[in-house]
Amino acid sequence: MSYQIIINSSSDLPEQVVKEFDFKVMPLTFNLEDKSYLNDPGYQSMPVKTFYQHLKDGKVATTSQLNTEDYIKEIEAQFKEGKDVLILSFSSGLSGSYNAARLALEHFKDSERKVYLVDTLAASLGEGLICYLAGLKQREKKTIEEVRDYVEELKLHVAHWFTVDDLMFLKRGGRLSGASAIIGSLLKIKPILHVDNEGKLIPRLKTIGRKKALNTLVKKLTETIDTSLSKLVFISHGDDLESANYVKERVLALNLSLEVKLVNYIGPVIGAHSGPGTIALFFTAKER
Questions:
Q1: Residue 277 backbone class (left: φ over 0; alpha: ψ -120 to 50; beta: rest)
Q2: Helices (H), the chain
Q3: How many angstroms separate the CA atoms of 130 and 137, rounded?
Q4: pLDDT tens digits for 82-141?
Q5: SS3 for 119?
Q6: How much is the CA Rg of the chain, to the nearest whole Å?
Q7: 263 C-beta neighbours (distance < 10 Å), count
Q8: How many Cβ atoms from other residues are within 10 Å of residue 29's Cβ?
């Protein structure tokens, strides 16, 4: 029986990958200067470089979660096409979108068709890596239940390691005090953050200088990667392709037979909170 995998735009997968796996993307929304824009995979609502330039110019972006009605409409549309549904949701630790999907599923509890929901507890291309690997399983003709169970088993083995260039974005998100952000900026402190097992973004380490921060991301990969799960590596960036490519080169130089499959932008919904210059590294690990 055919089924549709539904993902969120917070997964930051490029448009060509979405088309390759025939994913249905539910776009979250970001807001700038009293206008709302869809965070769609092709950045048709607003070019992603334009978005980051707004942030660099000091403009403040906010974000909005998906609502229950959005999910109900999409599930109904898939059912009408004769498809079951597997929803892979943005982390419940970072957004209310998962809860909106959970409430939508209540609407279909008596349906003859199947609809399943997985909280990926992931974000950006960490969420994207989970969706990508799920798409590969679907391509192998795995059932909807097999893919659901695979993702549940996999998700806490997908490591997310970030470094943020502008500490004021962490201050704005409540992850750093104003004084710490100011002092840290003066001392060129670059924090290392990760997404934990509750799907929340938390600071883990502090480094001095940008290059040290980027090298620390790679060091974390060497310490924890589990290539028995996958040899794919994804990298996302907040409009800093040069730093992303530096990390890519460092990963490939490890000679671990890894494939840096994707290097892509951190989309506006995540970028509104992480800011320009953020670099993130994603891979399968023994544990997060």
A1: left
A2: 15-21, 48-56, 68-80, 97-106, 124-139, 144-154, 167-172, 178-186, 210-224, 241-252, 268-274
A3: 11
A4: 999 999 999 999 999 999 999 999 999 999 999 999 999 999 999 999 999 999 999 999
A5: strand
A6: 19
A7: 17
A8: 18
C-alpha torsion 132→122→62→28, nearest 10: 40
Q: How confident is the model at residue 171 (pLDDT cuts 50, 70, 90)?
A: low
Closest by CA position to 220, among listed 154, 285, 155, 133: 285
Of 158, 134, 136, 159, which Cα lies nearest the Cα of 148? 134
Which tokens belong to 135? 């798409």
By mean pLDDT, which of 143-147, 179-183, 262-266 is the weakest? 179-183
CB-CB contact of 178 with 171 (8 Å): yes
Q: Please answer whether residues 151 and 278 qualify as being in contact, where contact means their C-beta atoms are separated by less than 8 angstroms.
A: no
Instruction: Quote the DSSP letter at residue 225.
Output: B
Contact 217, 281 (CB under 8 A): yes
pLDDT digits (tens, 9 = 90+) for 256-278: 999 999 999 999 999 998 999 99
Domain architecture of the chain: domains with CATH: 3-155 (3.40.50.10170), 157-284 (3.30.1180.10)
d(CA 123, CA 158): 10
Q: List the beta bridge partners of residue 283.
A: 159
Q: Give 132's contacts (C-beta < 8 A, 6+ positions apart).
A: 13, 17, 21, 232, 234, 261, 262
Q: Is the pLDDT of residue 177 over 80?
A: no
Helix axes 124-139, 144-154, angle to 10 degrees: 150
Name the strands in the sheet holding 61-64, side by side, starting at the edge strand that comes first in the sequence: 35-38, 29-32, 61-64
Identify which of 244, 223, 224, 226 has the alpha carbon closest to the alpha carbon of residue 234: 244
Q: CA 51 from chain center: how many Å?
A: 17
* 63 touches 269 (CB < 8 A): yes
Spatial separation of the C-alpha atoms in residues 61 and 215, rounded to whole Å:
29
